[in-house]
Design goal:
Length: 108
């Protein structure tokens, strides 16, 4: 049950990354826009595909963990305002923690 919750939270964060260019108004920065839309979509879909799965062999959790690391680096590569910077780093770190917890959860 908790794996569903963790993957659901990861999917919600992926959805947030997907819509963040419009929320923070940097949709005119083409590269930043496409990175957010592409990686946010991949995290959303990957998290939904990983629903109820745990263990080191679940590639969807590895993928989402990697995307979380990219989103921590994202505000250092592209210019975003301070609140966006803070949210990208915090939500990227939470994405890593949630997916790490799924990778090393007791397999049932």
């Amino acid at each position: 049950m908790t794996m569903y919750l963790k993957n659901g939270l990861s999917a919600c964060m992926g959805l947030w990354f997907l819509v963040s260019p419009w929320v923070f108004g940097f949709e005119a920065q083409t590269n930043a826009f496409f990175v957010c839309v592409l990686l946010g979509s991949v995290q959303f879909v990957g998290s939904l595909l990983a629903l109820g799965k745990s263990g080191k062999r679940v590639w969807q959790n590895w993928l989402c963990l990697l995307i979380g690391a990219i989103f921590i680096l994202f505000p250092n590569v592209f210019y975003v305002e301070l609140m966006a910077y803070f949210l990208f780093v915090v939500l990227g770190f939470l994405t890593i923690l949630i997916n790490y917890a799924n990778l090393y959860a007791d397999e049932q």
